[in-house]
Amino acid sequence: MITRRHALKSAAVLAAAFASTPLHLVAQSAPPTGVHALPPLGYAYDALEPHFDAKTMEIHHTKHHQTYVTKLNEALKDYPDLQKRSLDELLRGLDTVPEKIRGAVRNHAGGHYNHSLFWKTLKKDSRPLTPDGALNRALGELFTSEEDAKEQFLKAAMSVFGSGWVWLVVDKDKSIKLVTTANQDNPLSKGQTPLLGLDLWEHAYYLKFQSKRADYVQAFLSLQNWEFIEAQYDKIRA
Ligand code: MN
């Protein structure tokens, strides 16, 4: 049993410990670190101007994406086995993540993965899709033309209520599909592999486009890094 005298003594020891800790160490307590880290953007914040503005890119990367990484590390801090899993493994196997942290892992491993992919699939003045490439052929089965593809993508983006993503995915049967998810959910959790995704959270566009989501989607549709996306598709098909 903890006696009052013992409690008082503990409090005194604690107070003494704090008093002897240099203030700058208390004030500068770093955010919890972990196995996951914010990946570099891979290009300058203004590289996608005028389609995506530098300020939004910087805040999106250093604040929003960083927060998903920090909160994922926090969620995993008492689970060394889960720390060994890749984002892909975490998201494909959400049902094997303990219920206590499943929601946090779903949101923050999702947020981390989704944004990491998003940055890589964006490029200004990318070379076009290889006309006789496998991806172009597969897209030809889903869409009747480039215009049709853009129209369907826009329609899907406008159909998402609130925050979420539109994805081009490779389904379990290797066919390509256009799908949407809510929040930071990722198609991997349904056995689909994303090729590219469009972030429909207002933080992704509000500074420049305000409530005009359609204008943001149009800007996005001119920023596909086809070289990267085709390489991903070939890897998934292999
Ligand atoms: Mn975002």
Brief write-up:
With 238 residues, the protein is mostly helical. The chain contains 11 helices and 3 strands, in the order H-H-H-H-H-H-H-H-E-E-E-H-H-H.
* Average of pLDDT: 89
Structurally, the number of domains stands at 2
> Would you tell me the structural class of the helices and strands?
mainly alpha
Helix content: 40-55%
Major beta sheet, specifics?
Answer: 3 strands, antiparallel
CATH superfamily membership of the largest domain, which one? Iron/manganese superoxide dismutase, C-terminal domain
Stated plainly, the CATH topology of the largest domain is called: minor pseudopilin epsh fold
Q: Regions with pLDDT < 50 over 5+ consecutive residues?
A: 13-30
Shape: globular
Bound molecules: manganese (II) ion
- Distance between termini? 64 Å
CATH class of the largest domain: Alpha Beta
The number of strands is: 3
**Cross-sheet strand order for the largest sheet:** 2-1-3
Q: What is the CATH architecture descriptor of the largest domain?
A: 3-Layer(bab) Sandwich
How much of the sequence lies in strands comes to 5-15%
H/E element order: HHHHHHHHEEEHHH
Q: How many DSSP helices? A: 11
Rg, Å, rounded? 22 Å
